[in-house]
Amino acid sequence: MTVILDYGMGNLRSVERALRALGADPAIQTDLRGATRLIIPGVGAFGAAMERIGPLAPAIREFAAAGHPVLGICLGMQLLFEQSEELGEFAGLGLVPGQVRYLVKTEGIKIPHMGWNQLEIRQSEGLHSGISTSEQVYFVHSLYCDPVDSAVIASTSDHGITFPATIQKGKIWGTQFHPEKSGAPGLRMLQNFLSC
Predict the structure, then answer these.
(1) Which region, left, alpha or beta, applies to residue 134 given φ > 0 means left and ψ of -120 to 50 means alpha?
(2) What are the start-end ranges of the H helices in 8-162?
(3) Residue 13 sits in which domain range?
């Protein structure tokens, strides 16, 4: 069963609708009971999200360590990392070594980054199976993930700097953009997650 984690800070219904459009029957839950796949959505601040998700952190780590697929979306992807500098310093789930940092403010670059951007795909298997490098997806974020090991970066995008748009570390996947709001390519990525 695919569980969409409800910790009070997520795009739960839009993710659920996208999965149902693909023929899946996801459950929105506040725990991992019965889960075979886990989606961590997210909208909001890292510290507040970790405070809410904190009691579930050990179970999420065990779930991922057992080889179950995990997908973090937007803030959910950032929570997969060890630490964030958003509004202070906060520890994350630590499933992917690295930091979450603010996008660089430069002339002509608006922060937050909002809108459609192209992906530069580095890993064509897994999350990006069937996705062309010309596809555009929908971003809303002010921070980006900076992994210790660049090999986990599955695709990049650009907004003032080149940043990881997606990551893959085994069956731990993350999208900095919102696949549920990114049309056909976003749905294809969600289908790839359901099939992994």
Answers:
(1) alpha
(2) 12-21, 46-53, 57-65, 75-79
(3) 2-195
The yes-or-no answer on residue 141 being catalytic is: no
The residue-averaged pLDDT of 161-170 equals: 97
Other CB atoms within 10 A of residue 159 CB: 21
Distances (CA, A) of 121 to 117, 154, 175: 12, 6, 12
In tens, the pLDDT along 7-58 reads 988 889 999 999 999 999 999 999 999 999 999 998 889 999 999 999 999 9
Domain at 145, CATH number: 3.40.50.880
Catalytic site includes residue 74: yes
Among residues 86, 89, 178, 196, which one is catalytic? 178
State the average pLDDT for the chain.
95
Residue 158, both tokens: 């650009």
Catalytic residue selected from 16, 86, 135, 180 = 180
Return the amino acid letter for 159. Answer: H
178 is catalytic: yes
- Peptide bond preceding 55 in cis form (omega within 30 of 0): no
- pLDDT for res 184: 94
170 HSE (CA, 13 A, CB side): 10
Amino acid 12: pLDDT: 93
Domains: count for the chain: 1
